[in-house]
Amino acid sequence: MHEDERLAAFLDEVCGPLFWPPYRRRVRRELADHILSRAELLERSTGCPRGQAIERAISAMGDAHSLGLLLRRTRFPLRSLFLTLMTSLIWAAIAACILYLLLHLGLRT
Fold first, then answer.
1. What global pTM score does this model have?
2. Which entry of 13, 78, 87, 101 is 20 to 30 Å from 93 by CA?
């Protein structure tokens, strides 16, 4: 397999478990940059050919599917959305209580 195809296959497998498209694109870009930088460093320091350097850099990343699952667990967008929604609901309840108290106290005087 050609090194570019190998890199693309690795990135596809890592990004497979990631559901949120902007996060998937960012992870793909950052991982590709990291792997290519590491491969370039290996080429310079050890003198190994580019294809072998990319293979070694990919191997150093570990299992692609496990990495994808870990990335999904650490930054799942629905968790953030859920927390934002819950915070909004709490603030709305506080505002409703204040409004109720103001209206209730205003009617008695």
1. 0.67
2. 78
